[in-house]
Target: Winged helix-turn-helix transcriptional regulator
Amino acid sequence: MVETADARRAHAAFVQPEQACPIAPVLDIVFSRWTTPILWTLNEYGRQRFMELQRTIATITPKVLTQRLRQLERDGLIVRTYHPEVPPRVEYEISDLGRSLAPLFATLSEWVEGNLAKVEQARQEFDAAEQRPAGR
Amino acid sequence: MVETADARRAHAAFVQPEQACPIAPVLDIVFSRWTTPILWTLNEYGRQRFMELQRTIATITPKVLTQRLRQLERDGLIVRTYHPEVPPRVEYEISDLGRSLAPLFATLSEWVEGNLAKVEQARQEFDAAEQRPAGR
DNA sequence: CAGGATCCATAAGGATACTG
DNA sequence: CAGTATCCTTATGGATCCTG
Model:
């Protein structure tokens, strides 16, 4: 039996896509602001101290860096190690769970490499059509 | 020649991870708010009208829906078709470029399925350690 | 050094009402 | 129906100062 497009569209009216969309949960976890640069840095360059991260990310403020690191630690994606010395030393490294995101990031890189140019082109064409032809 | 961790960390100080992180460009394109539910819906249920989308997404307001649809159209991920009738009819469908995100979404779903529970568990353990043991 | 606390600017998003 | 326009609330991030 073939499911028609109309049947699928009728069904669409009964689901809540925020819940139905199965990737929604990841967004808050790995794609909050600053999280990908942090994870990427820790994955590429290994364990780093707080100040190292701040220098590496460059445009992030200590407050926001702290917030994001806490969230990532709470979600189990990074590991925070506190060394009780004077002055104190704290090191962050990516966890196994964090490393499990690698294939995902790889897929993303591939998409960027293959399709970002197409997006740029689409934008130029869209913007070029400033004299709206119809229906705007 | 083996690149040491220290060498890599030293190098990290000289790059700008916002630019170095190769997936940064995708975030604004496909992971802006509401974009994944929209793309997911159009990909799953096919072409839909404005009101259908609004009913499907349920908690989105027309203003925001319009904004997101414009952005997706500009980026070439969806196609907008205007039918000059009375009342007017507008249909949205996913483009080939938008469909090229399918493997990405699939990878995401897999990660969610396999690892979301671990995140939940990490959160509970983190929250359970309210009596901060050290370094907080 | 690694942050916590505080205050402030900006902007994204929601609610509501209205139009071609 | 498919949006626009307007107003307003809230969330996010930046700047600054301070501390164990």
User: Anything to note?
Assistant: Strands of chain B lie at 48-49, 78-83, 89-94. Chain B touches chain A through 71 residues (CB under 8 Å). The first strand of chain B starts at residue 48 and ends at 49. The first helix of chain B runs from residue 5 to 12.
